[in-house]
Structures are given as C-alpha cells and as structure tokens.
Amino acid sequence: MDPSVIIVGAGFGGVAAAIELQRHGFRDLTLLESAPQIGGTWFHNHYPGAACDVPSHLYSFSFAQRRDWPRLCSPQPEILRYLQGVARDHGVDRLLVPDTRVARCEWDGGWTVHSEDGRRFQASALVIATGQLHQPAWPNIPGREAFAGHSFHSAQWDHDYDLRGKRVAVIGTGASAVQFVPEIAGEVQRLLVFQRSGNWFLPRSNRPYPAATKAVFQHVPGVQAFRRKFLFNYGETLTMMIRHPRTIGLVGRARSASFMRLQLRDAALRRAVWPDYTFGCKRVLFSSAFLPALQRPNVQVLTEAITEMTPDGLRTAGGGHHEVDCVIYGTGFRTTDFMFPMEVVGPGGRTLRETWAQGAHAHLGMVVPGFPSMFVMYGPNTNTSGGSIVWYLEVQAAYLRQALQLARERGAGAVEVRPEVEAASDRAVQARFAGTAWTQCDSWYRDERGRIVANWPGYMREYGVKARTLDPAEYTFSAVSAPAPAPSR
C-alpha cells in the first residue's frame, strides 16, 4: 500500500520533500502551510534589503539550477519567485492546502493532524518542515506594551508605516538588522541602533552581474557546475575556521578584522561595535553596507542595556532616556523552539516536548525514537554555519523518501529509528563541538541550558556521507494499520 504523507510547511524543506516523494511514485501527498502561498521564511520576511547571504548558485536545488541569477546573492522577491516556480514546474503547488496553521499532530496508528480552525488531516507518515527561522523572538523588556508609538518585528514588516522623517529605534544587530538598517538609514530623521554584542563581518559585494558575466554563466558549458562546486568548498572553509579557532580560525579572524578596520574609520564607533568573542562563535555576517551606515550623521549606536520602555521611548542602564516615534525589533527568531508551540504526540501520549525536555535531539536531525514515521526537516543540529541549508534539505528529502520506500516495500505501516541508534548519534554530534568556536560564547545556536541544538558540528560533505543512504538495520518496521486518509479541506 502506498503510504500517505502529510508535509507541514511549504518552504524550501516542504517543497523539497514533496518533489522527492512525488518523483519516486508517492501520490498521496498533502502540503499544509499556514501562509496563503508557498514560500516559508521567504514569504514572511520581506523587510527592506531582505536577501540571502548564501550565493544563489548554491542556495538553490541541484535539480532546478538557474543560469540567469541577476546577482551573487538574490533578494527576497527573487528567491520567492524561484521557489514558487520550482514548485509549479514540478506540480507540487497543487498539493498545497494554504492558510492552515497546525496546532497538534497525534499518532493513533497513523498521524492525525489538527489545524487551529478545527480541520483534521490523516496520513500514515508525517514530515515536519517548519524549520528553525519562522517564529519571531520578542525581547523581554519591562514596559514593552506601554510604548505608545509604532512598533513591529522585522519579520512582520509594516510597509504601510512611513519611516521618512521619523525617529526610529532598532533593537538588535543580527542578520536581519544588518540588511535593513542600511536601507532605512537614509530616510529616517534619527536612527538609534541598540546593540547587545558586535558581529564579525566579511565583505559582500552584491551588485548586479555585468552582461558579459551573465552570458558566461548561461552559455559556457561547465561554468555553472564549477561555480556551484567552488561555492560549496568556500562554505566548507568557513566551517573549517569555526572548527579550528586556534589555527585556521585565526586567518578568518584576521581577514574579518582587516575588513572591519577599513570600514570603521571612527575609532570610538569601532570600539563600540567590535565583537568580544571568538570568530565564528556566533553567525558571521556578510555585508559591505552595514558598518558604513552606522557612520552616517543621523545614526547612533547604543550599547547600554535597555532597562525599560516608556510611552514615548526607551530607557537605558546609564539612566538615559531616548524618545522615538517607532521601534523596530530586529531580534531574530526562536530558533531552538523548532515546530513548537505545535504539539506532537506519539504512541502512549508522550509528547515531543517531553522527549526534548533536556534539549532537542534527533538522529541526523530528522528522526526521533518513539515517533513512528515522523521526519523533521531542518531539525536539531542541521543548521549550517558555512554552507547552504537547501543542500541539506535535498539530502534529508532523499533520506526520508528511502525510509518510506522501505516501509512500502516491506508492507510496514510504520518505520521508526532504534533508540540506541539515535542516542549514539546524539552523543557523537555533541562530542564534536568540543574545541570549536561554537562553544566559546552564548548564541542562538544554544538552548537555555547551553546545549548546542541548532548547528551541525562538521562539514556539509560529512553530513552528506552520513545521510546519503539509509541503513535499514538502524530502524524497526512494524505492521501498524494506519487510518485511511480523509483530509478535510
């Protein structure tokens, strides 16, 4: 019997899984998405300057390569069009059930998925492709609700609010703020940038390709493949720097420091924004526009902690009060929550939240004992610090497809990773962080207990080797009778 599959999330992960399964003969597929259309994080994040800092030749599917990318790193609209076009070209857009926010997934011999509006969907297998970067994180600042001006999160950008001539505070200097601050600095009257810690930067020139360069990419055989391989290996060198902070990592630090010194002519500002942690411990950011934007006469960087928000501004630890018209929260995402607050309930009523009480973990970031025929894409310890998550997602889609193929061939109703396999896998992953830059500071890669739950500790190629071929001996196959699929749309 052909397994039925529900995929939760229609970003790159969900689309990759749907295409891979459909390509191998799986026809009973349902793609649930909380948004009105396919896109995931690239649908929701549309702030000024939103773009990917991974070059598009690598941040794209291997089976859907474009030769006409207009620049090195594509902006959000271009990426969204690409993903939706790939889904349309492969016919998985017809699987989409939009505007469906999932509240609960429950195993009862098969998976029953409950949406917040009361609809139910049933299938024999579940793929959770909600990713790590989809739930905005809001800072815990006393009085935040008392602020009487305008405010919004960068992941929920209010394009109807006119920033021109306004006094604006930006809280946070992570990857999103680094992109939108240069875009708005020239139009606001005053821009206050509240920084908790500085960043290590590397340059990113993202001008449109000259016509001759585009022609080479499009028409010269082998150039596209070489470009993709080069970018893959370049990403691996960044991972090498993070894995070896006392040797090759010093080269990365020196390159970053040299670039930052050239951009930061003001000595006082340089001291204020200079990172005080090991290169690579937090996400290394690529921008040639952010540091110059901080040196504009209407921009001020503040490093004192915000102690309180008042109806007309923000108060800092030194006692200063800063009146503003608008506050933009560039405070990132709840990266260690994964699919929560969605509840996932396995056999016997045990929840995934309980299973992950001491930190999220999964074999190869995808499968968890006690949750049959459930697969997580972009799950625990599969984030990349130097490569492309799209590459990881392709590997994961092929892996979960192999599991479901084996279940189909064996006539099994469920496939589940062996507990001892997952436990050994998790120990090995955590052990590999020892001595790396990732352990040298607090970052969004770690949960509240300090466990690194976001990142893969090695190289992309190593993950590919481990996850390329599923070992049936690592799984149990059981003849569970799953309920007949009966989606209510």
Summarize this, please?
This protein is an alpha/beta fold and about 500 residues long.
How do the helices and strands line up, and which of them pair or pack?
Blueprint: E1 5-8, H1 12-23, E2 29-32, H2 41-44, H3 76-89, E3 96-97, E4 102-107, E5 111-115, E6 120-123, E7 125-128, E8 150-153, E9 167-171, H4 175-184, E10 190-194, E11 201-202, H5 211-219, H6 223-243, H7 248-263, H8 267-273, E12 285-286, H9 290-294, E13 299-302, E14 306-310, E15 313-316, E16 321-323, E17 326-329, E18 343-345, H10 352-355, E19 374-376, H11 389-410, E20 414-417, H12 419-431, H13 460-467, E21 475-478
Parallel strand pairs: 1-2, 1-7, 2-3, 4-18, 7-19, 8-17, 9-10, 9-17, 10-13, 11-12
Antiparallel strand pairs: 4-5, 5-6, 14-15, 15-16, 20-21
Q: What would you say this structure looks like, in words?
A:
- The protein has 489 residues and is an alpha/beta fold.
- The chain has a five-stranded parallel beta sheet, covered by helices on one side. It has a five-stranded parallel beta sheet with strand order 8-17-9-10-13. It has a four-stranded mixed beta sheet with strand order 6-5-4-18, with no helix packed on it.
- The two termini are 24 Å apart.
- The radius of gyration is 23 Å and the shape is globular.
- The longest helix has 22 residues, at 389-410.
- The chain has 13 helices and 21 strands.
